[in-house]
Amino acid sequence: MALTSDKLYLVASRLGPVAQKLGMRSVIELMSALRTNPKEATISAVIEAMVTHESLFFRDDRPFDYLEKTLLPALIAARGGRRPIRIWSAACSSGQEAYSIAMLIAERFPGWHWEIVGTDISAPIVTKASAGVFSAFEVKRGLSPERMARHFRRLDEQNYIVSDSIRKMVRFDTHNLLESALRLGVFDIIFCRNVLIYFDTPTKGRVLDLLARQMTPDGALFLGSADTVHGVSNKFVLAGNERGVFKPVSDVAKVA
Q1: How confident is the model over 202-213, as a mean pLDDT?
Q2: Proportion of the chain in helix, strand, coil states, percent, rounded to 5
Q3: Which structural domain range is residue 116 located in?
Q4: 184 in a domain, yes or no?
Q5: Would you say the pTM of this structure is higher than 0.85?
Q6: pLDDT value, residue 252
């Protein structure tokens, strides 16, 4: 994460409670401990405090519209049912994006074999995503009443749970975007939206290079509306005129 001087307030506000919980007198003492004796528990506590978990269902609509009307029909035609179409929701937070993809597929493309994987660096947030339990406030952010009725059931006055059929379509795991994702396999579609904005340019390039290694030649990468590959990575080019959607560049094309 790129923490510039204008973000110092964020460091203080988020890490102050962590330092207090760990019995330290200040954030400065916490930082010193991280440098001199970086214990796993301390590192995890800092990561949990600093990462952002903002998410909502069917966020920004347009990517899901393109997914439904253009990309998935093309991939289905190309694959012909010979193997499952694999989709990765990278930095998935509490799972809204991954479940949105699953709902769209269940509604528009039933009968095909899909594999949807959601990953996040935060172990607790991955546990939450796997449970599929969301507050009344969370389910009303991006979901129509029809989708709520179709894909959720009420647990109590405050919470809803994703239906079993949708939960079974998604697998969640922990993963750091700065590490190799070979263990996750190759994907036809990767969503990595509203994540790169938190990184400096070299880190963005590293993430994009690692994502490129996990994509099929005819796959597609979805980035956030404020993200770009221009001047950051030569592994992707814009997919036509569709803003925020990129396709991998083959090694042959790069040499040419």
Answers
A1: 95
A2: 45, 20, 35
A3: 62-255
A4: yes
A5: no
A6: 36
Taking the chain, what is the end-to-end CA distance rounded to the nearest angstrom? Answer: 34
Whether 23 and 108 map to the same domain: the answer is no
Q: Is 224 helix (H, G, I), strand (E, B) or coil?
A: coil
Side-chain-side CA neighbours of 90 within 13 Å: the count stands at 29
Sheet holding 236-238, edge to edge: 170-174, 114-120, 85-90, 187-192, 215-223, 245-248, 236-238
Q: Tell me the pLDDT tens digit for each residue of 33-52.
A: 888 888 887 877 777 777 76
Evaluate if residue 255 carries a pLDDT over 50: no
Q: Which two tokens stand for residue 202?
A: 């070299």
Q: How many Cβ atoms are within 10 Å of 15's Cβ, its own excluded? A: 21
- Is 57 within the bounds of a domain? no
**Residue 35 included in any domain:** yes
Q: Residue 222 sits in a domain of what CATH number?
A: 3.40.50.150
Partners of 192 in the β-ladder: 223
151 shares its domain with 98: yes
